[in-house]
């Protein structure tokens, strides 16, 4: 069941994409990582618009890993938009960003984030973060009903 | 006339050289007051010099004339002069502010007071009338208005500057903040890819190549610490700090747990002289201050020496001084004050790595909480750091 392990990563920094993907591989997260690079693409993917209309190729993710600083539309805008969509508003969103600014953290939760994680530089910590995400969001967390 | 006060012009009064001179001077002092005496019918029987200046009449022109000449025609027409005298008679006093006429026909705003006069037998003999020219007064008011608006303009300017300054301050802080964060993105890549290189290609590199890779990772780690400390320091300068009672003992236990992370040897090397009193502080900042003080105390010991840190409190008047005593290398007196400045380091990075910001964070944090910090030390005899904060009222 491929939809069970699709993760949508919204991240514009190519190095971060590479390192996150590698960390997931090493943590043996059974996943299909879909990557979009900005807020607009994230909205398009989640609403199944344009190039993302084929849900067998671009299934709805079990959760979204969302950066906040993004080109075109910020992570906040994506999050606020998502929570207004009746069919997909329950999709869990895990914010993964470089900011540990309390204003950003509060605003993310106010906008409906389910978790807030801060990007780390230390590769050991990155590996731990990937394992923790796998443990919690893939294995433990119960999925909501969509639609 | 004998029942009436002497209201001759001041010059006349002065020339007599008698006690009248005092009244004369008094009258002169209030020279923007025109003072008249009217008979019972309202005709002028006497006036002072100021009246001459104010109204523009000579004495001979006005004595014996009805005081309604001072009223503008429309006022005379509606019977104001007689009505005012009547009002004074009925109520014992009449006052108003209205326009009056000078001899040349020009008008001026005047404040007028009319009081009926009686002789010893209680017979009504006439009126005293005091007129004050408000022109100067209103000019002064105008000038005051100008001054007031200048002051207002300046305070608006000041407000604008203050808010510009606050804006600049915010911009500066957000600049420092975003620079620190933006620096982290390339740093993550640098550190992450060095790790990838080591993992995936380590076997293809010779020992020197692997050492270089480790150097890249080590440099990245130091830069990460530096950015973290800079962020903490700039955050301390920026955040609002609401102070409230904080339990020093529980907070300290929390900090020890955090520093030692389950290492019992580390825990054994820190002795806390319980009980510790509560203080007024910002809890998270106090945690940061204690964390930095304790890890600093554990760090600077001679190699081979087991660190021994003793924490105890001392009540001082209304504040609590918390001492953190170590058995480390100590500091020469000439360096004592420098150690609280950012980026000041007394040691090279090799035996005692660090960013040089730790104690600056302690100092800034204490300053923001309205507390103080200090250190006593001698080279080779360890150090005694202290922080002082207001005592929390235990009864509350």
Shape call of chain B:
elongated
User: Which spans of chain B of ≥5 residues are poorly predicted at pLDDT below 50?
Assistant: 1-23
Q: Radius of gyration of chain B, rounded?
A: 44 Å
Q: Give the overall silhouette of chain A.
A: globular
DSSP strand count of chain A: 5
Uncertain regions of chain A: pLDDT < 50 for 5+ in a row?
Answer: none
N- to C-terminal separation of chain A? 18 Å
Indicate the proportion of strand residues of chain A: 15-25%
Total strands of chain B:
12
Radius of gyration of chain A over all CA atoms, rounded: 14 Å
- Structural class determined from secondary elements of chain A: alpha/beta
Task: Estimate the helix proportion of chain B, in percent.
Answer: 40-55%
Instruction: Please give the share of residues in helix of chain A.
Output: 25-40%
Structural description of this entry:
The complex is a heterodimer of chains A (147) and B (396). Chain A has helices at 14-26, 39-47, 75-83, 102-110, 123-140; strands at 6-10, 32-36, 63-66, 93-97, 115-118. Chain A is of the alpha/beta class and 147 residues long. The radius of gyration of chain A is 14 Å and the shape is globular. Chain B has 396 residues and is an alpha+beta fold. Chain B is 48% helix and 20% strand. Chain B contains twelve helices and twelve strands. In chain B, helix 1 packs antiparallel against helix 2 (20-29) and helix 9 (248-260) packs across helix 11. Classes of the chains: A alpha/beta (147), B alpha+beta (396). Chain A binds chain B through residues 13, 15-16, 18-19, 22, 98-99, 101, 119-123, 126, and chain B through 177, 181, 184-185, 187-189, 191-193, 195-196, 217, 220-221, 224.
How do you describe this structure in short?
By secondary structure, chain A is an alpha/beta fold. Chain A is 39% helix and 16% strand.
Would you spell out the secondary-structure blueprint of this structure?
The complex is a heterodimer of chains A (147) and B (396).
Chain A: E1 6-10, H1 14-26, E2 32-36, H2 39-47, E3 63-66, H3 75-83, E4 93-97, H4 102-110, E5 115-118, H5 123-140
Chain B: H1 10-16, H2 20-29, E1 33-39, E2 44-47, H3 49-55, H4 59-62, H5 73-77, H6 80-91, E3 94-101, E4 107-118, E5 124-133, H7 135-201, H8 207-238, E6 244-246, H9 248-260, H10 264-268, E7 270-272, E8 279-281, H11 283-299, E9 309-316, E10 319-325, H12 358-368, E11 372-377, E12 383-390
Parallel strand pairs in B: 7-9
Antiparallel strand pairs in B: 1-2, 1-5, 3-4, 4-5, 6-8, 9-10, 10-12, 11-12
Helix pairs in contact in B: 1-2, 7-8, 8-12, 9-11, 11-12
